[in-house]
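Task 17 of the worksheet. Students: predict the tertiary structure of the chain below and write it out as C-alpha coordinates. Keep your answer in the requested format; marks are given for formatting as well as content.
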Amino acid sequence: MRNSTFGLTAAALAPISAKKDGVFPQKESKPDLLSVGIAGYTFHHLDIDQSIVIMQQVGVSALSIKDFHLPLNSSQSTIDEVKRRFNSAGISIYAAGVIYMRNETEADQAFSYAKKLGVNLIIGSPAYDLLPYAEKKVREENIRIAIHNHGPEDKLYPGPKDIYDRINKMDSRMGICLDIGHALRAGADPARSVSDFSSRIFDLHIKDLADNSSSDKAVPLGRGIIDIPSLVKALQQIQFKGRCSIEFEQEVKDPLPGIAESTGFFRGVMSALS
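Model answer:
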Protein backbone atom coordinates (compact mmCIF):
# COMPACT_ATOMS: atom_id res chain seq x y z
CA MET A 1 0.00 0.00 0.00
CA ARG A 2 1.41 3.37 -0.98
CA ASN A 3 2.12 5.88 1.80
CA SER A 4 -0.17 8.47 0.23
CA THR A 5 -0.91 10.19 3.53
CA PHE A 6 2.55 11.71 3.42
CA GLY A 7 2.61 12.76 -0.22
CA LEU A 8 5.48 14.99 -1.25
CA THR A 9 5.07 18.72 -0.84
CA ALA A 10 7.46 21.62 -1.24
CA ALA A 11 8.00 21.58 2.50
CA ALA A 12 8.77 17.87 2.50
CA LEU A 13 11.51 18.42 -0.02
CA ALA A 14 13.38 20.96 2.14
CA PRO A 15 16.22 21.86 1.94
CA ILE A 16 15.79 21.58 -1.85
CA SER A 17 14.40 24.60 -3.70
CA ALA A 18 13.95 25.55 -7.32
CA LYS A 19 16.77 24.63 -9.64
CA LYS A 20 18.86 27.52 -10.92
CA ASP A 21 21.85 27.25 -13.24
CA GLY A 22 22.00 23.50 -12.65
CA VAL A 23 22.25 23.83 -8.88
CA PHE A 24 19.69 23.30 -6.13
CA PRO A 25 20.51 25.99 -3.52
CA GLN A 26 20.09 24.91 0.08
CA LYS A 27 17.54 26.49 2.38
CA GLU A 28 17.65 26.95 6.11
CA SER A 29 15.61 24.18 7.75
CA LYS A 30 15.08 22.76 11.20
CA PRO A 31 17.33 19.84 12.19
CA ASP A 32 16.19 16.36 11.22
CA LEU A 33 14.39 14.41 13.94
CA LEU A 34 16.53 11.41 12.95
CA SER A 35 20.02 11.60 11.47
CA VAL A 36 19.86 11.16 7.70
CA GLY A 37 22.73 9.78 5.65
CA ILE A 38 23.35 8.24 2.25
CA ALA A 39 24.34 4.60 1.76
CA GLY A 40 27.24 4.51 -0.67
CA TYR A 41 25.70 1.93 -3.03
CA THR A 42 23.34 4.70 -4.11
CA PHE A 43 26.24 6.07 -6.16
CA HIS A 44 27.44 2.83 -7.77
CA HIS A 45 27.26 4.37 -11.26
CA LEU A 46 28.75 7.73 -10.24
CA ASP A 47 32.21 9.00 -9.44
CA ILE A 48 33.16 10.87 -6.27
CA ASP A 49 32.61 14.36 -7.67
CA GLN A 50 29.17 13.46 -9.01
CA SER A 51 28.25 11.90 -5.67
CA ILE A 52 29.35 14.99 -3.77
CA VAL A 53 27.24 17.27 -5.98
CA ILE A 54 24.13 15.17 -5.37
CA MET A 55 24.68 15.03 -1.62
CA GLN A 56 25.04 18.79 -1.52
CA GLN A 57 21.92 19.26 -3.63
CA VAL A 58 19.77 17.10 -1.35
CA GLY A 59 21.31 18.53 1.81
CA VAL A 60 22.72 15.30 3.27
CA SER A 61 26.16 15.49 4.85
CA ALA A 62 26.87 11.93 6.07
CA LEU A 63 28.03 9.05 3.86
CA SER A 64 28.62 5.35 4.37
CA ILE A 65 31.32 4.83 1.75
CA LYS A 66 31.57 1.85 -0.61
CA ASP A 67 34.79 0.36 -1.91
CA PHE A 68 34.17 1.37 -5.53
CA HIS A 69 34.92 4.92 -4.37
CA LEU A 70 37.72 3.86 -2.03
CA PRO A 71 39.14 0.34 -2.48
CA LEU A 72 39.82 -1.71 0.64
CA ASN A 73 43.53 -1.93 -0.19
CA SER A 74 43.95 1.85 -0.49
CA SER A 75 47.03 3.47 1.04
CA GLN A 76 46.71 5.91 3.90
CA SER A 77 47.51 8.78 1.54
CA THR A 78 44.73 7.74 -0.85
CA ILE A 79 42.27 7.42 2.03
CA ASP A 80 43.27 10.84 3.34
CA GLU A 81 42.79 12.42 -0.08
CA VAL A 82 39.31 10.92 -0.55
CA LYS A 83 38.33 12.05 2.95
CA ARG A 84 39.64 15.53 2.17
CA ARG A 85 37.50 15.74 -0.97
CA PHE A 86 34.35 14.83 0.94
CA ASN A 87 35.19 16.92 4.00
CA SER A 88 35.93 20.01 1.93
CA ALA A 89 32.40 19.66 0.51
CA GLY A 90 30.93 19.51 4.01
CA ILE A 91 30.41 15.74 3.95
CA SER A 92 31.61 13.34 6.64
CA ILE A 93 32.25 9.63 6.09
CA TYR A 94 30.64 7.94 9.08
CA ALA A 95 30.89 4.25 8.10
CA ALA A 96 32.29 1.87 5.49
CA GLY A 97 30.57 -1.00 3.76
CA VAL A 98 29.02 -3.36 3.01
CA ILE A 99 32.31 -5.25 3.45
CA TYR A 100 32.27 -9.03 3.02
CA MET A 101 34.51 -11.12 5.28
CA ARG A 102 35.04 -14.77 4.42
CA ASN A 103 38.27 -15.35 6.35
CA GLU A 104 40.53 -13.75 8.95
CA THR A 105 42.64 -11.99 6.33
CA GLU A 106 39.57 -10.22 4.95
CA ALA A 107 38.43 -9.33 8.46
CA ASP A 108 41.86 -7.88 9.27
CA GLN A 109 41.74 -5.82 6.08
CA ALA A 110 38.25 -4.52 6.89
CA PHE A 111 39.20 -3.35 10.38
CA SER A 112 42.49 -1.87 9.17
CA TYR A 113 40.58 0.01 6.46
CA ALA A 114 38.08 1.40 8.98
CA LYS A 115 40.89 2.43 11.32
CA LYS A 116 42.76 4.26 8.53
CA LEU A 117 39.51 5.88 7.47
CA GLY A 118 38.82 7.03 11.02
CA VAL A 119 35.32 5.54 11.29
CA ASN A 120 33.99 3.50 14.19
CA LEU A 121 31.41 1.53 12.23
CA ILE A 122 31.78 -1.19 9.61
CA ILE A 123 28.72 -2.29 7.68
CA GLY A 124 29.70 -5.90 7.21
CA SER A 125 28.78 -9.44 6.29
CA PRO A 126 31.10 -11.91 8.02
CA ALA A 127 30.81 -15.66 7.47
CA TYR A 128 29.23 -17.56 10.36
CA ASP A 129 32.47 -19.21 11.44
CA LEU A 130 34.19 -15.82 11.39
CA LEU A 131 31.87 -14.18 13.92
CA PRO A 132 34.07 -14.99 16.96
CA TYR A 133 37.08 -13.54 15.16
CA ALA A 134 35.08 -10.45 14.16
CA GLU A 135 34.07 -10.04 17.81
CA LYS A 136 37.75 -10.28 18.78
CA LYS A 137 38.61 -7.52 16.29
CA VAL A 138 35.75 -5.36 17.60
CA ARG A 139 37.20 -5.62 21.09
CA GLU A 140 40.77 -4.97 19.97
CA GLU A 141 40.02 -1.98 17.75
CA ASN A 142 36.88 -0.61 19.46
CA ILE A 143 35.22 -0.45 16.06
CA ARG A 144 31.60 -1.57 15.84
CA ILE A 145 30.27 -3.86 13.16
CA ALA A 146 26.69 -3.70 11.87
CA ILE A 147 25.83 -6.87 9.95
CA HIS A 148 23.71 -6.19 6.88
CA ASN A 149 20.70 -8.33 5.95
CA HIS A 150 20.37 -8.98 2.23
CA GLY A 151 16.99 -10.62 1.72
CA PRO A 152 15.89 -14.17 0.86
CA GLU A 153 18.74 -14.72 -1.62
CA ASP A 154 21.28 -14.22 1.19
CA LYS A 155 22.41 -17.63 2.51
CA LEU A 156 23.76 -16.06 5.71
CA TYR A 157 21.59 -13.15 6.82
CA PRO A 158 18.25 -12.88 4.96
CA GLY A 159 16.53 -10.83 7.68
CA PRO A 160 17.40 -9.00 10.88
CA LYS A 161 16.40 -11.90 13.17
CA ASP A 162 18.95 -14.10 11.41
CA ILE A 163 21.60 -11.61 12.52
CA TYR A 164 20.23 -11.02 16.02
CA ASP A 165 20.01 -14.71 16.86
CA ARG A 166 23.74 -15.10 16.15
CA ILE A 167 25.05 -11.96 17.88
CA ASN A 168 22.72 -11.17 20.78
CA LYS A 169 25.05 -12.83 23.31
CA MET A 170 28.20 -11.38 21.77
CA ASP A 171 29.91 -8.06 22.50
CA SER A 172 27.41 -5.20 22.50
CA ARG A 173 29.36 -3.56 19.67
CA MET A 174 28.22 -6.38 17.34
CA GLY A 175 25.01 -5.15 15.76
CA ILE A 176 22.68 -4.89 12.78
CA CYS A 177 22.46 -2.67 9.72
CA LEU A 178 18.74 -3.00 9.05
CA ASP A 179 18.05 -2.86 5.33
CA ILE A 180 14.30 -2.30 5.37
CA GLY A 181 13.71 -3.38 1.77
CA HIS A 182 15.56 -6.67 2.09
CA ALA A 183 13.99 -7.22 5.51
CA LEU A 184 10.50 -6.92 4.04
CA ARG A 185 11.37 -9.34 1.25
CA ALA A 186 12.58 -11.82 3.89
CA GLY A 187 9.22 -11.63 5.65
CA ALA A 188 10.16 -9.20 8.43
CA ASP A 189 8.23 -6.03 9.24
CA PRO A 190 10.80 -3.19 9.40
CA ALA A 191 9.03 -1.25 12.18
CA ARG A 192 8.57 -4.39 14.29
CA SER A 193 12.22 -5.28 13.72
CA VAL A 194 13.28 -1.90 15.07
CA SER A 195 11.32 -2.57 18.25
CA ASP A 196 12.36 -6.22 18.62
CA PHE A 197 16.08 -5.71 18.04
CA SER A 198 16.46 -2.12 19.22
CA SER A 199 19.59 -2.65 21.31
CA ARG A 200 21.50 -4.02 18.33
CA ILE A 201 20.39 -1.78 15.48
CA PHE A 202 23.27 0.57 14.68
CA ASP A 203 22.40 1.70 11.15
CA LEU A 204 19.57 1.58 8.61
CA HIS A 205 19.40 1.45 4.85
CA ILE A 206 16.19 3.21 3.86
CA LYS A 207 14.52 2.31 0.57
CA ASP A 208 11.15 1.40 -0.92
CA LEU A 209 9.87 -1.38 -3.18
CA ALA A 210 7.00 -1.59 -5.67
CA ASP A 211 6.39 -5.12 -4.35
CA ASN A 212 8.30 -7.65 -2.28
CA SER A 213 9.10 -10.09 -5.06
CA SER A 214 12.55 -8.82 -6.00
CA SER A 215 15.19 -6.27 -5.08
CA ASP A 216 14.91 -5.06 -8.69
CA LYS A 217 11.54 -3.49 -7.81
CA ALA A 218 13.13 -0.43 -6.15
CA VAL A 219 11.14 2.81 -6.34
CA PRO A 220 11.56 6.26 -4.78
CA LEU A 221 10.64 6.34 -1.10
CA GLY A 222 6.92 6.80 -0.55
CA ARG A 223 5.89 5.28 -3.88
CA GLY A 224 6.03 1.67 -2.72
CA ILE A 225 4.73 -0.76 -0.14
CA ILE A 226 6.92 -0.04 2.90
CA ASP A 227 5.18 1.72 5.77
CA ILE A 228 7.65 4.54 6.39
CA PRO A 229 5.54 6.40 8.99
CA SER A 230 5.39 3.28 11.18
CA LEU A 231 9.14 2.86 10.81
CA VAL A 232 9.81 6.45 11.86
CA LYS A 233 7.48 6.08 14.85
CA ALA A 234 9.34 2.95 15.94
CA LEU A 235 12.69 4.72 15.62
CA GLN A 236 11.35 7.62 17.69
CA GLN A 237 10.13 5.24 20.37
CA ILE A 238 13.55 3.65 20.83
CA GLN A 239 15.25 7.07 20.59
CA PHE A 240 17.44 5.84 17.76
CA LYS A 241 20.76 7.70 17.59
CA GLY A 242 22.32 6.10 14.51
CA ARG A 243 21.94 7.00 10.86
CA CYS A 244 18.98 6.44 8.58
CA SER A 245 20.80 6.24 5.27
CA ILE A 246 18.86 6.59 2.04
CA GLU A 247 19.78 3.85 -0.42
CA PHE A 248 18.31 4.58 -3.83
CA GLU A 249 18.81 1.54 -6.07
CA GLN A 250 16.55 2.20 -9.03
CA GLU A 251 18.50 1.82 -12.28
CA VAL A 252 17.98 5.19 -13.98
CA LYS A 253 20.22 7.44 -16.05
CA ASP A 254 19.92 10.34 -13.62
CA PRO A 255 19.39 9.23 -9.99
CA LEU A 256 19.11 12.78 -8.58
CA PRO A 257 15.31 13.09 -8.84
CA GLY A 258 14.79 9.74 -7.10
CA ILE A 259 17.33 10.51 -4.38
CA ALA A 260 15.80 13.94 -3.84
CA GLU A 261 12.28 12.52 -3.70
CA SER A 262 13.33 9.77 -1.28
CA THR A 263 15.19 12.16 1.00
CA GLY A 264 12.39 14.69 0.88
CA PHE A 265 9.74 12.08 1.62
CA PHE A 266 11.64 10.75 4.63
CA ARG A 267 12.11 14.25 5.98
CA GLY A 268 8.46 15.01 5.30
CA VAL A 269 7.38 12.00 7.37
CA MET A 270 9.71 13.03 10.19
CA SER A 271 8.35 16.57 10.11
CA ALA A 272 4.74 15.37 10.16
CA LEU A 273 5.42 13.12 13.15
CA SER A 274 7.46 15.60 15.18
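Marker's comment: Residues 4-10+35-273 form a domain with the TIM Barrel fold (CATH 3.20.20.150). The mean pLDDT is 90.
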